[in-house]
Design brief:
- By secondary structure, the chain is of the alpha+beta class.
- The chain has a single domain, classed as q2cbj1_9rhob like domain (Jelly Rolls).
- 15% of the residues lie in helices and 24% in strands.
- Strands 1, 2, 3, 4, 7, 10, 12, 14 and 15 form a 9-stranded antiparallel beta sheet that branches. The protein has a 4-stranded antiparallel beta sheet with strand order 5-11-8-9, with no helix packed on it.
- A hairpin with a 6-residue loop joins strand 14 and strand 15.
- This is Phytanoyl-CoA dioxygenase PhyH.
């Protein structure tokens, strides 16, 4: 069976591609949205998926969550319950784009790619890695307050972006994202255990940061996404509701990011020596911009 990371093009017809520059206009963020992102460190309620796409991704999710899947070895990480507490389950994985066509092709979703390029400063964009986060009804675990880049310091410079997209409606009751607006300006903090003590990060904050720690809930309808800065403090509370909370995450960085480690950047990925550009099979270029100002060259 194929490793889908070998294919840097669409494998299905789930995500039709625009043909002209004008076709892309429907996906462009406004200057007001970009300004909000720059000030607050996040932008939410961006529609990425229609119902058919949601259904296809949920079907694929149910398949890849099975630890007996024949391509299970292609995951970079797979945690049936990262929390370790059977009463607070947090399914978390990395690498499912290598296994399921729907998750492979969502990386080339034009709505996602256009927004990612704009929020990275109209840059060319490379894929970093994907994630699944699933909280079952009644006993779904939390994701501790953290900054994504605290886990990614093996790459430089910091020019990364995260996109979180729900496959179920995400509500405060079932553990939606919580963002701390403006915290992307706090600098890099130490990394906590991702599924550990919700407030583990608090011990690493200054008194000023604690005074400005004012989270806001980010409820989202299924198929809608939130984008956030790599230093934005965020997390999510446990799911004690009667509804599951399934979501996938796409992490990207601006083209030109380099390795800052002589160790594997992800399990199963060949070493990219420190100082060399992040590229190749596992880090495909998904959106390319011309050097000429603002003109799209290639999709």
């Amino acid at each position: 069976m194929n490793d889908l990371a070998d294919f840097h093009h669409l494998l299905t017809d789930l995500f039709p591609q625009p043909k002209t520059v004008e076709d892309w206009d429907q996906y462009r963020l406004s200057q007001e949205q970009i300004a909000f992102f720059n000030e607050n460190g996040y932008l939410s309620d961006i529609k990425l998926l229609d119902q058919d796409q949601i259904d296809a991704l949920k079907k694929a999710l149910d398949e890849v969550m099975d630890p007996t899947h024949p391509q299970h070895h292609l995951f970079h990480e797979f945690h049936s319950n990262e929390s370790g507490d059977p009463n607070k389950v947090l399914f978390h994985s990395l690498g499912h784009w290598r296994i399921a066509e729907a998750f492979h092709d969502v990386i080339w979703n034009p709505a996602f790619r256009m927004a990612a390029s704009q929020l990275l400063g109209d840059r060319s964009v490379r894929f970093w890695h994907d994630q699944l986060f699933c909280k079952p009804a009644h006993h779904g675990g939390n994701v501790a307050w953290h900054q994504d880049y605290s886990y990614w310091t093996r790459t430089v410079e910091m020019q990364h972006l995260t996109c979180w997209c729900g496959l179920d409606d995400a509500t405060e009751e079932n553990g939606c994202l919580q963002y701390v607006p403006g915290s992307h300006c706090w600098g890099l903090l130490e990394k906590p255990a991702l599924a550990g003590d919700m407030n583990g990060l608090m011990a690493m904050m200054s008194e000023e940061q604690k005074a400005n720690f004012k989270p806001v809930a980010i409820p989202l309808k299924a198929g809608h996404a939130a984008f956030h800065h790599p230093l934005l403090v965020h997390g999510s509370f446990a799911n004690d509701s009667g509804h599951s909370r399934k979501a996938f995450v796409l992490n990207v960085f601006a083209d030109g990011t380099i390795s800052d480690s002589d160790e594997p950047l992800l399990k199963g990925v060949p070493v990219i020596p420190k100082g060399e550009k992040m590229e190749g099979k596992f880090f495909p270029l998904i959106f390319e911009k011309e050097l000429e100002s603002g003109k799209v060259e290639k999709w």
